[in-house]
Amino acid sequence: MDEILKISGLTVHYHSDGQVVHAINDLSLSLRKGEVLGLVGETGAGKTTLALSSLNMIQAPQGRVVAGTIEFEGRDVRALSRSDIQKIRGKDIAMIFQDPMTALNPLISVGEQIAETVRRHEKCTQNKAWARADEMLEMVGIPADRADEYPHQFSGGMKQRVVIAIALACNPKLLLADEPTTALDVTIQAQVLDMMSSLIRKSDTSVLFITHDLGIVAENCNKVATMYAGEIVEFGTVEQVFGAPRHPYTIGLFNSLPDFDVVSSRLKPIPGLMPDPTCLPEGCYFSPRCPDATDLCRSAHPVDLIEDGHLVKCHHPGSAKEVVA
Amino acid sequence: MSERPILEVTGLKKYFDVPQGRLHAVDDVTFSIREGETLGMVGESGCGKSTTGRLLVRLHEATGGTVLFDGQDVTRADKHQTHALRARMQMIFQDPYSSINPRHTVATIIGEPLEIFGRVHGAEELEDRVRTLMETVGLADRLYDAYPHELDGGRRQRIGLARALALEPSFIVCDEPVSALDVSIQAQILNLLQDLQEQFGLTYLFITHDLSVVKHISDEIAIMYLGQIVEKGPTRELFQRPLHPYGQALLSAIPIPKVGARRERIILRSEVSSPVNPKPGCRFAPRCIHAREECLGEVPLREVSPGRFVACRRAEEL
Lengths: 325, 318
Description:
The structure holds 2 protein chains of 2 kinds. Chain A is of the alpha/beta class. Chain A is built from 12 helices and 12 strands.
């Protein structure tokens, strides 16, 4: 198989104040080589936890992977020794964090922060590492003569470019991009996305693109997964999911957005709130907010229905389809 | 809708003295809002949109210019007049976490303005009014004695809204009221804001960086860049045909959540220049692909067709 990342039956819990937070619940997902998978969902859906799991970075003792496997190129990342996983982190799998203000070390120059990653993984000389740092800065659109400057001397958009340069410095096979442009202004976001997608295309990197912005997914991804309460509730190509969403939650997300082309006076929000992850509802987790929920939904947990590669976790995806029309 | 502007802002300026010189946060801004309408103010971080909002309700002292609210100049009002004006002009803030006191209960927070302005007599009337306000903004009655930390962002924003509505104002500055919220909750709050506007005939200045949101909620839109309004007009016309090169780039940068909807995107070079000691002339010129020598001169906001204002010398030819 050409799967680069394969997650099966992943369950992650956080323990806090004697309660168990069910962050990821029996989740399976796979990402093929060269794919850009958009992972969408609202705050608390478990998107970041999923990305951190892929790097085996769930922090004990609060966080615990309770079940499941995460395979990167056929190797179970959880079974790797500490030194083996460290060889993968930053080299084969890189991560871009949401907040460029906190992702960089304020006391180290940006050039050194890129060179550090290169030195660590490529076993090369200081000069070579620095040459690579200069090259990466130019690639993300920052003049190399600014390599000696410190993070505070850069604007938010420039800092995020540096974070991206660090992530891509060792030509990763898999990039985990966690809301990489959320903290940026829209014209700067356009610059950064434009640059990112051309770099990704050139290097043939696979990407897990976490975002809450459906517009970014439509324009930058080829696959999309919707997450709700620690589960993937819908998965498919961007054409499938955006063309005819089948899960009521995905449909609700689309309806909540002001439509850019049509003038309408009212939005159609999803009623209610995300369930408390320490006490998930019986049956389908979305049933308390779902306009189409039946007794079945409130008692039995739905299984994955797959048609043409379009997955939906819902008892009544047919009825959902009618809602769209 | 009435044609009468309830708010008229003329030549409004706010400068801050910083070690590097003088920061022109708001620089000669002029606009008006008709009663019962919404003016959407958009622009990127640091363009002066929040400072403008704060100047209107006098949370900042203006460096120059006037803000006429119902004929009265807010910037020159004395202490008593300002106090009275505050009852009629309210503000809701971006961050529903830091804008309400974590040590007070929901009831105390919403009831505080009523007590300060002596609008209620006795504990019973206060409780009645608070419960009515909670119902108006969709807060469950059981949350009366709850503390903010027990509530999510959407509910906290409802508290901020109830507090703003307590004194029955006619004008509310909404400073990024939904930016911190998830989309499904954002839609709930936007609908609520529209319902309240209809119910109480409210006038809004809606400040946001989210162009889809501003398009949805505004009658008119003003685009700000580095302390100045560069373009203004009725929402639909402005979105159909932005006239200012910055407006064009900004609108083209919005990702549309539809497959194949991607339009020709104008990628701007470099970043916003510094608002400290700005040079005369068009402030967008250093990033503008159409900039010419003439753009270094004065570029006033001018009316190019009825209701359509633009601050660009070359707007007609582009």
